[in-house]
Design a protein that fits this description.
The protein is an all-alpha fold. It contains 24 helices and two strands. A two-stranded parallel ribbon has the order 1-2.
Length: 536
C-alpha cells in the first residue's frame, strides 16, 4: 500500500522533471531567437492577463458572495444558487458565443449600423477579440471559484467579531473591510489561485482571440516550428511561474485562519436592503449569471439551429463516444489513484505519505500543455530508441508504441486532475472519525480490508463527487487533449476548437453545448453540497 502510494506520487513529479531535463538538454537557438523577438510579448501578455483575471475574479467573486450571504434583497435565494452556473462553461466556448454576437458582422453592430445609418468606419466599438476581451471571458467563467470558497467562509463565520466592530462605532463598509475581508482572505487567495492557474493554462480562448501567451507559444513551437526543445524551454518558464504562484499563495495565507472564541456561535442576521440599494444588489448578482451563463446559452442555441451539424450523425456519435470513453476512464483511474493516496496518508501518517500527497497536488498548478510535453518528450525518445534498436537487430520497425496512445493521455489527465479528486476525497474523510480505522487495525484488519469495508463505504458520496468533477474537467480540457490525443481520436472539445479555428463558429456551438450540458452536473452537485452545509 505504501509503495503504491509513493509510486503514484512520484508519477505526478515525472512530467515536471522531464520538462526541466528536455529544456536544459535542448539547443538554445530557437529559445534565444524567441527571447529576442516574441518572448517579451508572451511574458507581458501573460502577466497582464493574469493580473486582470485575478483582480476581476477577486472583486466579482467576493462581492457577490458577500451580498448573497450578508444581505437580503429581492431574488437573493435564487441568485445564490445561480451564481456558480458559469463554472459549467469552458472559457473558449464563451469566447465563441460572444465573438459571433459582438464582432463586426454580428447582430449587435449590424443593428447599430441599421439604426444610425453609420458606415463601417464611422464609429468605434470595443474589439472583443483582444486581450481585455479574453480577460472578460475568463473572469465570467472563473469567478465562481472565488464565490464558492468565499461564500462558504462567510457562512462559517460567527457574528461575534462583526457585532463587536459595530458596537465600537464602525459602519457596515468599515466592518467589512476590517473584519470580514481579513477573515475571508484564505478563501479569496485560494479561489484566485485556481482562477490564475486556469488562466495561464488556457489555450482555446487566447488562441481564438489572437492573444500571444506562453500557452499559445508552447503550442506554436511544438506544431508550427517543430522544435520540441523550444517548446520544452517555454514550458519550463511557465512551469516555474505556476509553481511560484502556488508557493506565493501558500506564503500569503501562511497559517491564516479564524476561530470562534466566544462561548457560542452567533449567527449574524443579514441586513435587509430596501429601495435603490436592494435593486442595485440584485443587478450586481444577476449580471454575472446573465453574461456568464444565460445569454451564452441562448446565443449558442441560436447558432446551433442553423449550423447544419447533426448530433445524431455517425461522426458526432463517434465524437461523443470518444469523449465519454476518455472522460470515464480518466475519472475512474484518477479517483482510484487519489483515493489510494489519501487513504494511505490516513492509515500510515508520516512524512513519506504526506510528501506523496503534496507532490500529487502540484499537478493542478501545471498547465495541461506543460504536462503533455513532460510526458511526450521522454516517451517519444524511448519509442525512437526502441525502434532504432529493433531495426538494427532484427530489421523490424516497432513504430511509436507509447507515443500518441490512449494510456499516455490518461496519465496526463491523472497528473493534471489528481489534486481535484484528492480534495473531494479528503472532504469525505474529514467526516470519518480517526478512531474507527484504528479500532479496525487493532482487531487485525489490514489496509486492503479497512479500505473496501470501512473507508470506501463511508466516503462513497465524496468519491463519486470526485469522479464526476474529474469526468467533466476532462471533457473541458483542451491543451493536453489537443497535443496528446491518439491519431483520429477527436473529442467534442477538439471538434469545437477546430471548427472555431476555421471560423465556423455556428458549427462549434453544437459540441460546445454538449460540453456545457455535462458541465452543469458537477456544478449543481457542488451547489447542493454547499447548501446542505449551510444549515440555515
Amino acid at each position: 500500500m505504501r509503495g503504491l502510494a509513493l509510486g503514484l506520487g512520484a508519477l505526478c513529479l515525472f512530467p515536471m522533471v522531464a520538462v526541466a531535463v528536455a529544456a536544459l538538454a535542448g539547443s538554445l537557438d530557437t529559445a534565444l531567437h524567441l527571447a529576442a523577438t516574441r518572448l517579451p510579448g508572451f511574458a507581458a501578455n501573460t502577466l497582464l492577463l493574469v493580473a486582470l483575471v485575478a483582480a476581476g475574479t477577486a472583486v466579482l467573486g467576493t462581492g457577490t458572495a458577500w451580498l448573497v450571504t450578508m444581505t437580503r434583497f429581492p431574488g437573493v435565494r435564487v441568485l445564490e444558487y445561480l451564481l456558480p452556473l458559469p463554472l459549467a462553461f469552458p472559457a473558449y466556448v464563451l469566447a465563441y458565443a460572444y465573438t459571433t454576437v459582438l464582432s463586426h458582422p454580428g447582430p449587435v453592430q449590424r443593428t447599430l449600423r441599421d439604426i444610425t445609418g453609420w458606415g463601417p468606419n464611422d464609429y468605434w466599438f470595443p474589439d472583443v477579440r483582444s486581450l481585455p476581451g479574453a480577460a472578460v471571458m475568463l473572469v465570467l467563467v472563473l469567478y465562481p471559484y472565488v464565490y464558492l470558497l468565499v461564500r462558504a467562509r462567510f457562512l462559517a463565520m460567527s457574528g461575534n467579531a462583526w457585532i463587536a466592530a459595530r458596537t465600537l462605532g464602525h459602519g457596515p463598509w468599515a466592518t467589512f473591510a476590517r473584519v470580514s475581508l481579513p477573515l475571508a482572505w484564505p478563501a479569496i487567495a485560494g479561489g484566485v489561485l485556481l482562477a490564475v492557474m486556469e488562466t495561464i493554462a488556457d489555450v482555446g480562448t487566447v488562441f481564438h482571440f489572437g492573444v500571444q501567451t506562453f500557452a499559445t507559444g508552447i503550442y506554436q513551437a511544438w506544431f508550427s516550428m517543430g522544435d520540441r526543445a523550444a517548446a520544452a524551454q517555454l514550458a519550463l518558464v511557465l512551469l516555474t511561474v505556476a509553481l511560484a504562484l502556488a508557493l506565493a499563495e501558500r506564503g500569503l495565507r501562511g497559517r491564516a485562519g479564524f476561530h470562534n472564541t466566544g462561548r457560542r456561535f452567533e449567527r449574524m442576521d443579514p441586513a435587509r436592503l430596501r429601495g435603490p440599494a436592494a435593486w442595485a444588489a440584485c443587478a450586481a448578482c444577476a449580471l454575472p449569471v446573465l453574461l456568464g451563463f444565460a445569454l451564452p446559452v441562448v446565443i449558442l442555441l441560436g447558432m446551433a439551429v442553423g449550423s447544419g451539424q447533426d448530433l445524431l450523425s455517425p461522426r458526432y456519435l463517434r465524437l461523443i463516444g470518444n469523449t465519454l470513453t476518455l472522460a470515464g476512464l480518466a475519472a475512474v483511474l484518477t479517483v482510484i489513484a487519489a483515493a489510494i493516496l489519501r487513504f494511505n496518508a490516513r492509515l500510515h501518517p508520516g512524512r513519506a505519505s504526506r510528501g506523496a500527497v503534496e507532490v500529487a497536488r502540484l499537478g493542478y498548478a501545471v498547465p495541461g500543455g506543460v504536462i503533455a510535453l513532460g510526458v511526450l518528450v521522454p516517451v517519444a525518445a524511448f519509442d525512437n530508441a526502441l525502434d532504432a534498436a529493433m531495426r538494427d537487430a532484427f530489421d523490424i520497425s516497432t513504430g511509436l508504441l507509447l507515443s500518441g496512445s490512449l494510456g499516455l493521455l490518461l496519465l496526463a489527465y491523472y497528473v493534471r486532475f489528481a489534486a481535484v479528486a484528492m480534495n473531494a476525497v479528503e472532504a469525505g474523510l474529514t467526516a470519518v472519525p480517526q478512531d474507527l480505522h484504528v479500532v479496525a487495525r487493532t482487531l487485525g484488519a489490514g489496509p486492503f480490508t479497512v479500505i473496501p469495508r470501512l473507508l470506501l463505504p463511508l466516503t462513497a458520496p465524496a468519491v463519486l463527487t470526485a469522479g464526476l468533477i474529474v469526468f467533466v474537467d476532462v471533457m473541458k480540457e483542451l491543451p493536453a487533449t489537443l497535443i496528446m490525443r491518439p491519431f483520429d481520436f477527436d473529442t467534442l472539445a477538439v471538434q469545437a476548437f477546430r471548427l472555431a479555428a476555421d471560423e465556423r463558429l455556428d458549427g462549434a456551438a453544437v459540441p460546445s453545448l454538449v460540453i456545457v450540458a455535462f458541465g452543469l452536473v458537477p456544478v449543481l452537485l457542488l451547489m447542493r453540497q454547499v447548501g446542505r452545509g449551510v444549515g440555515r
